[in-house]
Amino acid sequence: MAGIEIPVGVLFSSTGSYSVIGREGYHGAMTAISEVNASDLFDFSFKAITADPACRAETYAVLANQMMAKNDCGHIIGCQTSWSRKELLPVLERHQGLLWYSVPYEGFESHDRVIYSGACPNQNVVPLFQHILPQFGKRAFLIGSNYIWGWEMNRIARELLAAEDGAVLGERYVALGDVDIDHLITEIVETRPDFIFNNLIGDSSYAFLRALRDLGERDPAFRPDVMPVLSCNLTEAELPIIGAAADGVISTASYFETADYPKNVDFVRRMHQLHGEERGVSAMFTGPYQAVWALAQAIKACGSADPDEVRDVLTKMPLPTPVGDLHIDRSTQHATLTPFIGVVEGAAQGAAGRAAFRVINPQARRLAPDPYLVNLNSERNERLRDAVVLTSEVEDPLAGDAGFLRVVK
Q1: Range of the domain at 386
Q2: Are residues 295 and 308 in the same domain?
Q3: Same domain, 91 and 103
Q4: How many domains does the chain have?
Q5: 372-379 LR contacts (CB < 8 Å, sep 24+)
Q6: ∠ CA 178-180-186 to the nearest 5 degrees?
Q7: What is the pTM of this model?
Q8: Is 328 part of a structural domain of the chain?
Q9: 335 within domain boundaries
Q10: Name one GO molecular function term (predicted).
């Protein structure tokens, strides 16, 4: 493969309602492509074929089809929403390509044409709720952008709350990019939940957080230290845009700039040298960055850029990257990840570069992916069996003299 130039699609929205995280993903992928091309580890280089879907879900499939049919891209790094990922699936199937999807998502999918290197439910919402509910309470208000991510994350939240005898005081959705959110604030004032689970994205989320901060300044009962906002997708990239309203938000991610683990100090220093210290390094950057490096290592290992051969080899070995090794589960094609939980601090000081996440679970351990929450349901069934007793005090007309199972909880 010496001297071969391999076309790779880079498909992120740098304009539109969630362009902040789209640009972050684009820069992560392009930074890694530059590093791979400059490295003496590989006898090939990547040629980036880029496109901007402008946050229009239907445009992703059109552009992906062009990348694969006209530019011979077997691999696409990109997509920021589940809506756009779903749109790509028929295109990937038609061209037998691979999508490297590196953002957190709602799970309940395992497609042979997708490598899921972002966090799935057992690596985001489940550990977040397990950590937060004992501290703040179990009465939640759920909000989300009106598409798959919001619907499914709130559905999982309902199940987690029900399992803990919690309550959902409201569940509301707004159109993607809509910033008319006054009705959400009104209902939150009326219901006074223990916390808010925010699955809005982009401009909608920023508008909501600003309005909620204004409410907290008028009424201390709605300050973030009393009634926090929980998130599974807020990252460092968005903190300068949100400003002071980001303070106190509790978010989970597979990467925070402030996380203490091997290689991160050197990695952050290098990224600051490249892009400036005022720009935080986020999971939206490191996900695509790591995906490009993992793709390069897989191509090197199998000696081919063929998507099927790459897919087969990447589940058989850890893929070394500058951020750390990437492990892909063979049965689900999801990554093993660490669910860090962080709270935003410093945003109200007026210096955007100082806003950051303070990690509040520094001992977090890596979790194997469980996108269908099979293990969680198994644990729940175990708890149910523990709450069931065998008794013969009441006659069972179907079992004669035998005892029967009676649920006591």
Answers
A1: 374-407
A2: yes
A3: yes
A4: 3
A5: 372/107, 372/108, 372/110, 373/107, 373/121, 373/122, 373/126, 373/156, 375/122, 376/122, 376/126
A6: 135
A7: 0.89
A8: no
A9: no
A10: amide binding
